[in-house]
Amino acid sequence: MKALYLLGLTLGSLAFGQTITFKGCYNLFDNQEFVFTKTGVDAYNKNIYITTPVDGQPCGGLGTCEFKIQWNNTLNRWEFLADEGNGTFTTPYLIYYNSTGNNAANNPPSNTFGTWVENTTITQGDCGGNLNGTNSTMTGDVHSTSLATLEATKTKIQIFPNPVTEIISISGIENAKSIQVYNTTGQLIQDRIFDKKLNVSTLTAGVYLLRVITKDSQIHEFKFVKK
Fold first, then answer.
1. Does the predicted model carry a pTM greater than 0.70?
2. pLDDT per residue as tens digits for the range 141-178
3. In terms of Cα–Cα distance, which of 109, 152, 150, 155 is closest to 132?
4. Residue 147: helix, strand or coil by DSSP?
5. Cα 143 from Cα 138, distance rounded (Å)
6. Are 189 and 225 in contact (CB under 8 A)?
7. Which UniProt keywords apply (predicted)?
């Protein structure tokens, strides 16, 4: 089975700083720790993560391992994929999938939120079953709480003024990590360390989405109008 994960081609440069650290499926992945780096956002505003270094890392002397975590909109689920051996993820192997870990979120669920199901058709059961806190670790840019439970918290967070000409102020949150601004087509316009005051004076007039990401990877989103 390990031969399925032989890789070779280096992918393009990485542009974002969000990461996920994963360790699991010890029999196939040689008890190694893998770091996924956010490489972009798909058409559904879901984050895409690929292991670094981008040309893989050794797997039992048989080659290199390279993985991707991304959203499958057709099947409405998050997927953990292994490259098919060409470095392109054109026809990747499905290792795990999670259809229950709050699919409304823009980043994937943790190993203990919802159920990351082992795809035994590919792994032949060598991963030791579905992911959990005992047989794996998955930390970083993942979420472990349903967004539905965040609504009470979200109502305490305020952005003002709205509409805005120059500076948006954000109140009611203390554990924020970063702040992002997207346009109506889902394009990331700003991505920076959180500050309670955000200068949007350079934006053209229109509607935007402001996203606040907390240190425990919870996401709060607000629409605002730039005058």
1. no
2. 888 765 444 444 445 788 999 999 999 999 988 888 99
3. 109
4. helix
5. 10
6. no
7. Signal
